[in-house]
Amino acid sequence: MLRDEEKLRAYYADAPEDLSLDDLDLDRIPRHVSIIMDGNGRWATRRGLDRSQGHVAGVDSLREAVTTSVRLGVDVFSVYAFSTENWNRPQREVELLMHLFATTLVNELPLFHQENVRLRFLGDLEALPERTRTVFQRGLDETADHTGMVFALAVNYGSRAEIARAARALAREAAGGALDPDAITEDDVSRHLYTAGLPDPDLLIRTSGELRLSNYLLWQLAYTEFYVTDTLWPDFDRWEYLRAVRAFQHRSRRFGGVTNR
Ligand code: FPP
Fold it and tell me: TM spans, by residue (predicted)?
């Protein structure tokens, strides 16, 4: 992805002592960065606030993470915003989240235009409230001709459901005679996933210290480098992001083979 290095330097001016943009190899920025945004509720509870305030604060972190991804020159930035299991939360919290998704999307459209960001959604949007769906569709339409970073939001997303859905689609193709069951490849599976056409994540960041995948991108994360930070999502900023990319660049990625460095 084309990167404006001058803007990147300005964005990362005022670095804390332990951190500098010069620690990064700008030729080895991960192509696809994905984040499990976790810890909004705890962030709010620790401050004596309602959990919903944590989600509201999380929107600011998300905006900054989108901008950071663009500045760094990431090609695809994806986030886990709402899982198929999140419907089990109190109804009030679910409603607030759906409302927040819709409002945020409208509010951030100018940013997506300014930064040439193309929206994409991962998940089953059919089950979402009408207004949220309408706004999502508007976001897709308005950014369809953007040629910059892809920002993929996983909403009502569950990886097992996604894989089962791909299996059904492949079974239909086979039953219709369009596909030989013995010739089904990994690429055939991939092209039926919500992420069809996107590169697999190179770096997965999870905030708030939890060491689980929570039904997120199980297929796509096969060779992804994981970075877990104790920082809660509302406190995750451009510096935390830089730390994660720096850690990523110190990993030796072997993809099951031998070391290449
Ligand atoms: C996890 O924190 C966060 C979520 C389930 C929702 C993520 C939503 C946002 C960051 C709001 C903005 C998003 C968009 C797409 C506009 P948690 O509630 O599980 O925190 P906890 O583990 O501390 O309870």
Answer: none
Distance 166 CA to ligand 1 centre (A): 27
200 catalytic, yes or no? no
- For residue 23, what are its two tokens? 């620690």
Pairing of strands 32-36, 76-83: parallel
| Domain boundaries of the chain, sorted by first residue | 28-158+200-249
- The structure tokens listed for 2 are 């084309």
pLDDT given for residue 261 in this prediction: 52
Which residues contact ligand 1 via a Cβ below 6 A? Answer: 37-42, 55, 58-59, 62, 81, 86, 97, 100-101, 104, 153, 208, 233
φ/ψ of 96, rounded to 5, equals -65, -40
**Which ligand 1 atom sits nearest the alpha carbon of residue 104?**
16
| Tens-digit pLDDT profile for residues 17-66 | 889 999 899 999 999 999 999 999 999 999 999 999 999 999 999 999 99
β-bridge mates for residue 150, sequence order: 76, 118
107: annotated active-site residue = no
Is 51 annotated to bind ligand? yes
Q: What is the rounded CA–CA span in Å between residue 106 and residue 103?
A: 5
Q: What is the Å distance from ligand 1's center to 183 Cα?
A: 41
Amino acid at 30: P
Q: 28-158+200-249: which CATH topology?
A: Undecaprenyl pyrophosphate synthetase (3.40.1180)
pTM: 0.96
**Position 63, amino acid:** R
